[in-house]
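The records we work with from here on pair a chain with its fold. Each token is a code from a learned vocabulary of local backbone shapes. A record is reproduced here so that you can trace the correspondence yourselves:

_____
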Amino acid sequence: MKQHLWPLFLETVKRDVVPALGCTEPISVALAATIAIDELGITDQASIVSSDIKIDVSVSANLMKNGMGVGIPGTGMVGLPIAAAIGAVAGDRNAGLEVLKNLTANDVQTAKLMLDNNQVTVGVADVANVLYAKVTVYYQQQSASVTIADSHTKVIAIEKNGQQCLVTPKVETTKASKKDSPFTEAKLQDIYDFAIHAPLADISFILQSKTLNDALSNEGLTGDYGLKIGATFIKNQERGLLSGGLLTEVLTRTAGASDARMDGAMMPAMSNSGSGNQGIAATMPVVVSADFLKSSEEQTIRALMLSHLTAIYIKSYQNKLSALCGATTAAMGSAAGITYLLDGEIEQVSAAICSMIGDVSGVICDGAKTACAMKVSSSAGAAVKAALMAIDGIRVTGTEGIVADDVDQTIRNLAALANGAMTQTDVQILEIMMHK
């Protein structure tokens, strides 16, 4: 076992599995607006909503795609304009992906008034960065610009009145690669060894993903959110059109969490790789399976760690944002976790991931929205299916499609699809969305 990688694995999970309130792309815009307002020293809402203040938002095409139709927590509205406005009014610059955690009803009314007064403009920037947001706030004779790029909370530049206050070294912004990845030496075998054999005390923190995402799921199943996909599964069990069981429970509780998140619930999700939906897809199928199978707490911890780290590993080969639905790749982590809970070992875990790639590769991302809960639940169902097949010694073989005999090569093949041909798919998706 490559135990020298274990500290790196821990560091990676602690960095990439964190609480996030709201869809992370518009949250980046809200955070940038918050920092810009703070840099100008504006502290009272009367000044923010005054006619003297203007906010200009410029984002990458991919961020625009994921910000156009998704609910912004606590506002009852969708889109980047309200994200920028509410960030300016009520954001906490030190809260990262939970920048909007302290907003009030009065804050929301103030932000909406800014939109009514046409104080916020949003456009697409011609930049190489896949993830990019620049927010400029103009107030009286002053201005402040904040640029976030490459990661949802990574501020790469702050300018005040045209003068640079913060500059960080330029980083590669186009394609993810194995060279740039924290997994340079690692294979799936190493991730499996870590999740199964690491000291329990070192990895038990991953249970917080269960706590947060299960609470979000309960909110989605009991509240009036989005397309109510989770609630629809429950209703149709009561009608006798669906029966209970592992698959139905996984679909129901996973969809419920995404329903709430995508429609602006004021509750954080535990994210994975910068995405709340990816965090939900890597968490809830494992949590439900552990509950259904009456797994021990230790088994649940190890399954969740295997799921989250596998999801990060698979995503590390891909662009940060792309035309490939991230929930599908995150749910491949769940396939690994569920297979472990069913007493599968590395051979079965590898088979489940290969079958998932043979099943749901190519599912497009057409922006963040309430309908994402459908893709999240579909991916969760595919994870259960792949795990059950793997336990019976059945998998998509290396002679079929983009799947190879070796699981790590199969993961790289999926990344080649996402980073290659699907880049043009992304252009087409955004063109369709912008001209509807």
Q: What stands out?
A: The mean pLDDT is 93. Strands lie at 19-20, 53-59, 71-72, 77-78, 120-124, 132-139, 142-149, 155-160, 163-167, 269-270. Residues 156 and 168 are 5 Å apart (CA to CA). Residues 297-316 form the longest helix (20 residues).
